[in-house]
């Protein structure tokens, strides 16, 4: 497998959201991800490169997929939690970024407020990759897009619905619709609508590629003619205090077989995981024949390895 050519605007750059990147760059990452999925062993594109993975919030998929993907590309992943770092005892984000930049080739971080990853990126001399903030989950959107490309071919004009809480996963999906020309309709109740500015910017970008981003309240309207229905937890990390209210408000937005039946006959279900059985998704959908969720989880490894291969393409 030949190493892809460096891409201006992606090689050597940070990825905090996908909004600063071009459709061409994202398509190149997806091409590489799909090629890696069909290749064993992987090429040693990250040989001699060390990548720090900082987790200030729990993670199964992001942590293991980055570790596994980096190791398979011949690199060295270094997993750190804030409890392992002086960051957890008050050392500044700026000083942490300066020191790590002298020792590793890239920093992946899962943290809370997006302002914190921006602060890290401002002080770092190496690329910083967002492994989830309260506002964005760009690596998830790459795996989502890979999964849809593998199922449906081109994403341009593909109809998909996001149903439930308009959270970080939803924001990154809207941005991905803007980069690929998908028709994305988000069905969310009042008070749970996704970020309006991101929706507007993504809609404008999507329309240049023949797609759209729409926000509606009715979940049935959202899934009409959709080839994919996506949902995520009703209680994201940081939202625990309002859990009871959220479960009550989002109850009509559960993805079950009846909602799947209201979409296109070829519809697939997507979920970033972890799933809360019987809340945002039923076990029947999660484990049923229309679920693409387990491929989607696996694709975290391919798409993030592909992203690093492009970002660290020296
Ligand atoms: N989807 C996702 O990011 O999962 P983790 O929280 O397990 O990393
Ligand atoms: N929206 C969820 C995604 C978890 C992977 C959260 O932020 O907790």
How does this structure look, described?
The chain has 314 residues and is of the alpha/beta class. It has 2 domains: 18-136 and 299-311, Rossmann fold (3-Layer(aba) Sandwich); 138-296, Rossmann fold (3-Layer(aba) Sandwich). It contains 12 helices and 9 strands. The protein has helices at residues 23-37, 61-72, 93-101, 114-123, 138-152, 168-180, 196-208, 219-223, 243-250, 257-261, 283-287, 293-311; strands at 50-55, 76-81, 106-110, 128-130, 159-163, 183-187, 212-216, 228-231, 268-271. The strands form 2 sheets. A 5-stranded parallel β-sheet has the order 7-6-5-8-9. Helix 2 links the parallel strand 1 and strand 2 (76-81). Helix 6 runs parallel beside helix 7 (196-208). The longest helix has 19 residues, at 293-311. It starts with 22 loop residues before the first helix and ends with a helix. Norvaline is lined by residues 132, 167-169, 232-233, 236-237, 272.
């Amino acid at each position: 497998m030949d190493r892809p050519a460096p891409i201006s605007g992606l090689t050597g750059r940070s990825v905090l959201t996908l909004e600063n990147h071009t459709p061409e760059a994202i398509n190149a990452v997806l091409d590489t991800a799909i090629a890696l999925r069909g290749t064993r062993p992987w090429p040693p594109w990250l040989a001699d490169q060390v990548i720090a993975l900082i987790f200030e919030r729990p993670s199964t998929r992001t942590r293991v997929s980055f570790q596994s993907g980096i190791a398979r590309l011949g690199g060295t992943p270094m997993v750190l939690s804030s409890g392992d770092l002086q960051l957890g005892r008050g050392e500044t984000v700026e000083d942490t970024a300066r020191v790590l930049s002298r020792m590793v080739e890239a920093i992946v971080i899962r943290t809370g407020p997006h302002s914190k990853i921006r602060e890290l990126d401002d002080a770092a001399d190496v690329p910083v990759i967002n492994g989830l903030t309260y506002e964005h989950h760009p690596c998830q959107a790459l795996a989502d897009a890979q999964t849809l490309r593998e199922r449906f071919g081109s994403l341009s004009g593909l109809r998909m619905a996001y149903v439930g809480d308009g959270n970080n996963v939803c924001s990154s999906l809207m941005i991905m619709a803007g980069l690929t020309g998908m028709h994305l309709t988000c069905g969310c109740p009042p008070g749970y609508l996704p970020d309006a500015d991101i929706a507007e910017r993504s809609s404008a970008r999507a329309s240049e590629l023949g797609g759209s981003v729409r926000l509606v309240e009715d979940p049935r309207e959202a899934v009409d003619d959709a080839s994919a229905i996506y949902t995520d937890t009703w209680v994201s990390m940081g939202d625990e205090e309002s859990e009871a209210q959220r479960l009550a408000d989002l109850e009509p937005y559960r993805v079950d077989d009846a909602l799947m039946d209201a979409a296109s006959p070829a519809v697939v279900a997507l979920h970033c995981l972890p799933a809360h059985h019987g809340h945002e998704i039923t076990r029947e959908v999660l484990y049923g024949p229309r679920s693409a969720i387990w491929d989607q989880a696996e694709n975290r490894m391919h798409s993030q390895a592909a992203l690093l291969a492009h970002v660290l393409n020296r």
